[in-house]
């Protein structure tokens, strides 16, 4: 049952804190998007605040919403991205939440279960008319993406795209980022380099591999889809890594989490990174302070810019204002750290 406005005004930070067993300060920081709160806990606090009816006056320049607006934007994320101990998508969701608040909207996260994805079921926030629009964050099946865009027009695909000119999407520059990483390895004397990732799992991995191939082929080096080391299945779920009998001098990983898993496996085999083998990642999700040793050479994804672009496109779409249609690419930044060794 919907809470009326009088009930919503009575919900306090202390009520939310008591429910979760955390301090009022923690709740306040989470809702205000301040530092000092983990990404997963922040999302839980915000979700509970919404469910309890807590409202907060938005800060910054406000969007004039259409009549009958819910004031909410749904962020729908396939549930398999949360089957891991940590997820890049917590960071991305947080960036979206901050950007939406600055525009006078609140983010409501819903996980898309594998059954609903297979059965082509619209998210509950759409069925129950709880949102003005949806940001679909993270790769779904192509069937689901086409079904969703056909039945719900106010949407943006974030971090993936499909081959359909009628859809709007935002991604980082996967192709050029991986091209830069691979060129850096080649400049450091590496010639035998292998790619780690499932070519068919996501559009991001596909584009990253193509950037890797361009750098290899233009330098006269061998690169073939058949040499890829898979790190996950087609549904995006991680699988055990299998090292080849003949090891390269360097691995290019499709993401930081895969690079972390690979480094652990190499250490178990008695190999040192970068003394024996060099490793690079992608995303800058695992920073120096998250237990990575050595610090990982990677590409930093500009989550804030991706969130800002996605929200701006979606709000204009909702309000019927002009915006740039189609696929928008946001540049990343090459970060050179200690996981690459220069060969003589």
Description:
- By secondary structure, this protein is of the alpha/beta class.
- The protein has helices at 5-10, 13-20, 24-31, 39-52, 88-102, 114-119, 124-127, 142-151, 174-187, 203-218, 256-268, 303-319, and strands at residues 72-78, 106-112, 133-137, 155-158, 169-172, 193-196, 250-253, 278-280, 298-300, 327-330, 333-335.
- Helix 11 links the parallel strand 7 (250-253) and strand 8.
- Helix 3 crosses helix 4 and helix 5 (88-102) packs across helix 12 (303-319).
Label this structure with key terms.
single chain; about 350 residues; alpha/beta; six-stranded parallel β-sheet; 11 strands; about 40% helix; about 15% strand
């Amino acid at each position: 049952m919907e809470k009326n406005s009088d009930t919503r005004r009575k919900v306090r930070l202390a009520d939310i804190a008591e429910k979760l067993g955390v301090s009022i300060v923690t709740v306040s920081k989470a809702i205000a998007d301040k530092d000092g709160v983990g990404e997963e806990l922040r999302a839980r606090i915000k979700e509970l605040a919404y469910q309890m009816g807590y409202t907060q006056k938005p800060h910054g320049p406000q969007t004039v919403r259409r009549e009958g607006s819910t004031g909410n934007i749904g962020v729908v994320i396939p549930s398999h991205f949360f089957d891991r101990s940590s997820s890049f998508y917590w960071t991305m969701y947080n960036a979206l939440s901050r950007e939406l608040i600055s525009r006078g909207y609140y983010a409501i996260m819903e996980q898309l279960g594998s059954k609903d994805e297979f059965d082509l079921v619209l998210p509950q926030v759409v069925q129950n008319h709880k949102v003005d629009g949806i940001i679909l964050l993270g790769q779904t099946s192509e069937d689901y993406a086409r079904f969703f865009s056909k039945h719900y027009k106010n949407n943006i695909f974030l971090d993936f795209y499909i081959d359909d000119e009628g859809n709007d999407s935002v991604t980082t520059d996967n192709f050029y980022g991986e091209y830069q990483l691979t060129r850096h390895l080649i400049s450091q004397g590496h010639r035998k380099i292998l790619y780690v990732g499932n070519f068919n799992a996501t559009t991001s991995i596909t584009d990253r591999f193509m950037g890797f191939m361009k750098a290899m082929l233009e330098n006269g080096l061998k690169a073939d889809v058949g040499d890829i080391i898979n790190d996950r299945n087609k549904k995006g779920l991680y699988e055990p890594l299998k090292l080849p009998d003949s090891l390269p001098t360097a691995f290019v990983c499709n993401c930081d989490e895969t690079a972390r898993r690979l480094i652990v496996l190499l250490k178990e085999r008695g190999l040192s990174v970068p003394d024996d083998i060099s490793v690079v990642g992608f995303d800058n999700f695992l920073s120096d302070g998250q237990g990575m040793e050595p610090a990982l050479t990677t590409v930093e994804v500009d989550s804030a810019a991706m969130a800002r672009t996605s929200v701006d496109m979606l709000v204009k779409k909702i309000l019927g204002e002009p915006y740039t249609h189609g696929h928008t690419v946001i540049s990343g930044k090459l970060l050179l750290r200690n996981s690459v060794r220069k060969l003589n």
